[in-house]
Amino acid sequence: MKGTPIEQALAEYTAAAQRPAPGAQPDTRELLRAFHPDHDAHAKVTLQVGPNKGDICHRQVAQLLQADARIDEADLAGSPVTETDVLVIGGGGAGCAAALVAQQQGARVIIATKLRLGDSNTVMAEGGIQASIEKDDTPQMHFDDTIRASRQVVDRELVAEMVSDAPDVIRWLIQQGMQFDLDDYGDLMTRRAGGTSAARVVYYRDYTGLEMMRVLREAIRTSDIEVWDYSPAVELLSSESGYCAGAVISSLKERQHKLVRAKAVILATGGIGRMHLNEFPTSNHFGATGDGLVLAYRLGARLRDLDSFQYHPSGLAYPQHLAGTLITEGVRSAGAYLLNGRGERFVDELQPRDHVAAAIIRECAEGRGISTGSGSGGVWLDTPSVELRNPGLFEARFPKLIQLGKKCGIDPRHQPMLIYPTLHYQNGGVVIDRNGQTNVPGLFCIGEASGGVHGRNRLMGNSLLDIISFGRRAGAHAAGRAHDRGHKKISIEHLSNLRRELTLAGMPLDSKGPLLFPGYANFENDSDYAGLRKNSEREGMQ
Amino acid sequence: MSGNAHEIHLTINGKDISAPPYLSVIQALWHAGYPRVKSVGCLEGVCGSCRVMVRRADSRQVTTELGCQVLVEEGMQVNFLLFPTPTHHRYQLDEIKNSWEVQARFHQFFPEAEKCRHCGGCNTTCPKGIQVEKGVELASKGKFREAGELFGECVLCNLCQTACPESIAPNHVGLFSRRVTAYFHTRPSNLIRRLERLRKGELQVVT
Ligand SMILES: Cc1cc2nc3c(=O)[nH]c(=O)nc-3n(C[C@H](O)[C@H](O)[C@H](O)COP(=O)(O)OP(=O)(O)OC[C@H]3O[C@@H](n4cnc5c(N)ncnc54)[C@H](O)[C@@H]3O)c2cc1C
Ligand code: SF4
Ligand code: SF4
Ligand code: FES
């Protein structure tokens, strides 16, 4: 990358409390079209099979949606079957909220999760969660901001439900035992997020997700909900009448497949960051590989906005081994400027994320960035200016940032940090209704794996809200199915259709989904898990 | 700064590994081509999954740390700890009728907490430098708010639970302390006022 070398940029940098406003700004649409990775023509393909046949989709996501399954009928013979009312797949915030509510309503619940309970994007969230609670704010304003940021492609009903739920979501979290930052009178503190018209983000220091996740995890662990950890779902099960009737779980502990027969299944598998779309680094946890999309799609669930992803403006760009690590938007909300290689502001820092990310990519592409000398680069996040205006703020509010600074050998109070956009969030996902129900009966989907709530761009703090709002709704509705009679026959019949369609469309059957783990973790070559691979393949290998 | 700086030699889970100095021990395993999916989570030091035992070349002491946060060092020996055992403590917050009862109920839910022998094992093992032992003591005395504050950065790695000879589950004592504080004492008037207006139907959203 061309640009000012980092050593020179650092030498030229001086901290200042105030800086001149950026020059005239281009229209958001034009900026996005020219510089946002979603608009990269090479990254898009048209889906050839499945419920979204004909729709535009990101190339890497399409590859997984149109891949063969990890298992065959033959692999299931002899696998133990467990029965339950509600099976929750994914132990992040959304899954835990759903499980707690379903259990509270009397359902028997199993929660199966790929890694440890709580290893998730939820635990990493820093900035906070949105709820309109201040005097000068209303759910309507929250709605309007969300719609505006979404670029209008959004399910308005879902947004209306979510913003109306928001204050009660915070109450529910407090009743689970979650702490928030309070002022001297015990009121919730609020701060502004990019793209919002009022201070609406509530938070616990910069550990909002950690606090939320540990409270929900604790609530689950001290309850009677059955937790299966190290248990990724690799396929859903269908009933003779086309319902979702459970799932096939690959137990990494027992190294065998296990079947769960359930009256309702809630998919809460989170996002796609570890697919490293367009080779971007990511802020996401290790298990964010888009599995839920693949599982749901094969069973016939419709997806939406599969070409729209969020690149968070402030991913760490230097040092390299930490590339992609998120710096919370809270820092920009607190007033940090963005500066290019010339030390100038170039964008209104509180514009929505896609706008700010595209502006950073533009500065770097046009040679006004700061180069690290090894191909990468970025712009300054001007943290010292905030410290000058509000001494002590970082220590009190952003302990995690100070920690991160230590790992980089930087004190953000005195030195700016080099940032570049990082792959952060899957905007689209499985189509759902207000109760998290998909178009496949018996199958619910919630959280980052679902779509329609954030349109093509998500506001900070709306995701933590989304996962609890729809998590509770889906939990309650899934529990409502506990009185149904169970499914007689469970099978993976739908895979025959998939393979037929793939063959008809002339698609290769050599790749498998869901991905489960990023390639660099070498899961596919791990001899420990040979027993979890297809029989047919194992024979082929001998 | 450059990628081909000299390599570091260490052993991880008994395997000899070379890796550039800027990698964490998890990244080093991957770099050397070894598979690893267990004990990997956020890769950012907040989920507590990647628990490792570390012995450095110049020391006989074994420490417990978070593998995603430990950079490789020459002669280091690293072993991953797998699958922490979940706590056996069962309780529901709504079993506690009111805040006068918290202390009595605490001792029912966590009968071992009183038996702390102040061995300090939990403090030594905590990768976050939390004063775990003090937290247990404060909670036993009914000082839940103070106890809970000590655990603000706890990542629930369960190392203190493993270390405790009395099966106290100190991290869960900390979490209990935090949770009852919110459950009984967080009553923000701005939130309550808003809930009241919503209940009266005053704040409908027009789509
Ligand atoms: C660094 C970071 C900071 C963020 N900050 C904020 C913020 O300040 N405010 C905000 O609102 N949002 C924030 N977000 C976004 C938000 O945290 C997530 O979108 C949200 O928590 C997703 O919750 P979830 O429950 O849907 O998914 P997750 O929390 O990711 O949970 C998904 C779970 O499913 C499991 N899983 C995946 N595949 C399978 C499978 N095949 N079988 C079984 N289990 C599986 C995963 O292991 C994981 O445990 C942030 C995200 C990141 C990464
Ligand atoms: S208090 Fe215990 S569980 Fe929490 S971080 Fe420390 S050792 Fe881990
Ligand atoms: S390890 Fe257990 S017994 Fe020892 S000080 Fe900590 S809580 Fe007390
Ligand atoms: S992987 Fe989460 S703390 Fe290390």
From TrEMBL, chain A:
<keyword id="KW-0285">Flavoprotein</keyword>
<dbReference type="InterPro" id="IPR036188">
    <property type="entry name" value="FAD/NAD-bd_sf"/>
</dbReference>
<dbReference type="InterPro" id="IPR030664">
    <property type="entry name" value="SdhA/FrdA/AprA"/>
</dbReference>
<feature type="domain" description="FAD-dependent oxidoreductase 2 FAD-binding">
    <location>
        <begin position="85"/>
        <end position="464"/>
    </location>
</feature>
<keyword id="KW-0560">Oxidoreductase</keyword>
<protein>
    <submittedName>
        <fullName>L-aspartate oxidase</fullName>
    </submittedName>
</protein>
<dbReference type="Pfam" id="PF00890">
    <property type="entry name" value="FAD_binding_2"/>
</dbReference>
<dbReference type="GO" id="GO:0016491">
    <property type="term" value="F:oxidoreductase activity"/>
</dbReference>
<dbReference type="InterPro" id="IPR003953">
    <property type="entry name" value="FAD-dep_OxRdtase_2_FAD-bd"/>
</dbReference>
<dbReference type="InterPro" id="IPR027477">
    <property type="entry name" value="Succ_DH/fumarate_Rdtase_cat_sf"/>
</dbReference>
<feature type="active site" description="Proton acceptor">
    <location>
        <position position="353"/>
    </location>
</feature>
TrEMBL record, chain B:
<dbReference type="GO" id="GO:0051537">
    <property type="term" value="F:2 iron, 2 sulfur cluster binding"/>
</dbReference>
<dbReference type="InterPro" id="IPR001041">
    <property type="entry name" value="2Fe-2S_ferredoxin-type"/>
</dbReference>
<dbReference type="InterPro" id="IPR017900">
    <property type="entry name" value="4Fe4S_Fe_S_CS"/>
</dbReference>
<keyword id="KW-0411">Iron-sulfur</keyword>
<feature type="domain" description="2Fe-2S ferredoxin-type">
    <location>
        <begin position="6"/>
        <end position="84"/>
    </location>
</feature>
<feature type="domain" description="4Fe-4S ferredoxin-type">
    <location>
        <begin position="107"/>
        <end position="135"/>
    </location>
</feature>
<protein>
    <submittedName>
        <fullName>Ferredoxin</fullName>
    </submittedName>
</protein>
<dbReference type="InterPro" id="IPR012675">
    <property type="entry name" value="Beta-grasp_dom_sf"/>
</dbReference>
<keyword id="KW-0408">Iron</keyword>
<keyword id="KW-0479">Metal-binding</keyword>
<dbReference type="InterPro" id="IPR006058">
    <property type="entry name" value="2Fe2S_fd_BS"/>
</dbReference>
<dbReference type="InterPro" id="IPR036010">
    <property type="entry name" value="2Fe-2S_ferredoxin-like_sf"/>
</dbReference>
<dbReference type="InterPro" id="IPR017896">
    <property type="entry name" value="4Fe4S_Fe-S-bd"/>
</dbReference>
<dbReference type="Pfam" id="PF13510">
    <property type="entry name" value="Fer2_4"/>
</dbReference>
<dbReference type="GO" id="GO:0046872">
    <property type="term" value="F:metal ion binding"/>
</dbReference>
